[in-house]
Amino acid sequence: MSRILLAEDEEVLRMLIMDTLEDEEYDVDEAADGKEALDYLQNHEYDLVILDYMMPVFTGLEIIEKLRGGNQTFQGKIMMLSAKSQTYEQEKIIQAGADYFMAKPFSPMKLVEKIEEILNEV
């Protein structure tokens, strides 16, 4: 079973995504801000990390930079969710080390399809 960390500060959206992923039988941990996400990442291994761009304490972009920069060895995939969907924002996110970008708003089922695609890559 694939293990996923969802970091999203908007509670209603986080609950919707959590319910959707749990219905699909993914093992999911949830974080409400960037610090909580980093705490989970220091103590657990994940196949996929789904980050909101704009979160309290650390943004999704700052988390990516911590995971992919320096001596960090995070080997999982990273997906960024953001309402900032301009091309230059997407490029900045990918250059920082995200593997995928999904613009908000999105369909929960489209998110599940993308997650299945990501986790089934060889």
UniProtKB/TrEMBL annotation:
The modification 4-aspartylphosphate is found at D52. One of its GO terms (biological process) is phosphorelay signal transduction system. The keyword Phosphoprotein applies. Residues 3-119 form the Response regulatory domain. Keywords: Phosphoprotein. The keyword Phosphoprotein applies. Signal peptide: none annotated. This is Response regulator.
